[in-house]
Every structure is written in structure tokens, then in C-alpha cells.
Amino acid sequence: MGKTDSRGRYTRDLGSKLSEGGKIVNHRFYLGTDRATAEKAWVRLDQVWGAVEARWARAGRPTQKPLWDDLALKIALAVAAGKEEVSLHAWELPPTNRTTSGYDEEVREFYRAILKLQRDFLTVKLSLAEEEIRLDGKQEAEKERDNLVTLLGPAPADNPVSDPVAEGTLFSAMDAFALIEKEAHTQNEYGEKQAQRVDFLKRHLTDCPLASFANEEIDKE
């Protein structure tokens, strides 16, 4: 990891960004003064930057090289600070291709965007900022989020504009959720327990295309 700076902080230069003057410059992360904490942040930053590179490639390499955007940099700065969760505002999320019809659907759009980001940035939990959730209490909002997990299949590898709902099945979405949880919680048993819950549910459910999985099918199960 190298030596610390004059203030005893471990640092890491990783990735590039556009400066206010429009020039491409390197970005320096400050990882704190504790070596063990800094080493953990160092490793987690690799995953975040890898996600930036993968998203850049899926977008067709729109710039000369991958760059930190505001959203990815916010996530990376939280990881560098040792945070396990990042709360995002609706206006920070990427736009979706779906049209909204009413407030409830708008909230679902926010959660869809969060879940798609989570598939890329596995080393930190992403959540919607509390002030953006104006449903009947936090528990109802969390229930809404959990229900939406089943609406998303695996992230498309080569076609970022394909619709995972049209292509996936209920079981493939559940498997993708289990994989995310296992990869995001390698330091404890939470991810493995989530995977076990998915296996249990699959033994008691019937697989079906996500395109036909709606409220009627949920109530039936």
C-alpha cells in the first residue's frame, strides 16, 4: 500500500475524471490512518472501479477511457471511507426507459434503478434516500423494494438496452438476487442465508416468465 501522507493517511490514486476545466485528471482516494481499514477499502475500491470499466464497455466505450461519473464517484468515496451503505437520491439515479403512471409507479422506477446499480456495485449496499420514500412508513417501502427484486433478471452482458423482465424467468431473477447477496456479504453468513431462503422458496413456487409475473401471480403463490 505504500507510505502514508503527511497527515498519516493511506491514499490511492485510482481511475480518472473530468476536472472543472474539462481536463482528464487522476483521482486520489484517502483511506484513513488505520492500515487494516485502509487495506479493506483498497480491495473494495478495485471492485467499484471494475464496475465503472464494465459499465463503460457496455455503453460502447463513449469516451477515450473509462471515467468516474458523479454517481460512481459518490459510491467510491463512501467505500474509501469504510461505509457499508450508500443512500442515493432519486435525482442521482440513471434515467429509466419505462414510462411512469402515478406516484407508486414512480417509486418502483427508483427501486428498479437502485437494483440495476446494485448488480454492478457489489461491495456496498445501495438504498434510496429516506426523504424520497413517501409511502406508508419505512416497512412498507422496504416491502416494495423486496417485491421488486423478483422483477429483475440477470444483468445483460452485451446489450444494455435489452429488457431483463421480458427475457428472464422468476427463478432466474431469484438466482440473480441470491448471487448478489452472496457476493456482497462474503465476510459474514448473511448472503449464504439469503441464498438458502431462495432455495426454499423455489421448492414451493412455480417458475414462470417475468413478463407474466404480476400481482395476480404473487397473490396466487
Question: Your description of this structure?
Answer:
The structure is a single chain. The protein has helices spanning 35-58, 70-80, 103-120, 137-149, 164-167, 170-184, 190-203, 215-220, and strands at residues 11-18, 24-30, 85-88, 125-128. It is mainly alpha-helical. The protein has a domain at 1-83. The strands form 2 sheets. Strands 1-2 form a two-stranded antiparallel sheet. Strands 3-4 form a two-stranded parallel ribbon. It starts with 10 loop residues before the first strand and ends with a helix.
Task: List the SSEs and their pairings.
Layout: E1 11-18, E2 24-30, H1 35-58, H2 70-80, E3 85-88, H3 103-120, E4 125-128, H4 137-149, H5 164-167, H6 170-184, H7 190-203, H8 215-220
Parallel strand pairs: 3-4
Antiparallel strand pairs: 1-2
Helix pairs in contact: 1-2, 3-4, 6-7
CA-atom Rg in angstroms: 19 Å
Shape: globular
What is the distance, rounded to the nearest whole angstrom, between the alpha carbons of the first and last residues?
52 Å
How many individual helices? 8
Low-confidence segments, given as residue ranges, are 153-166
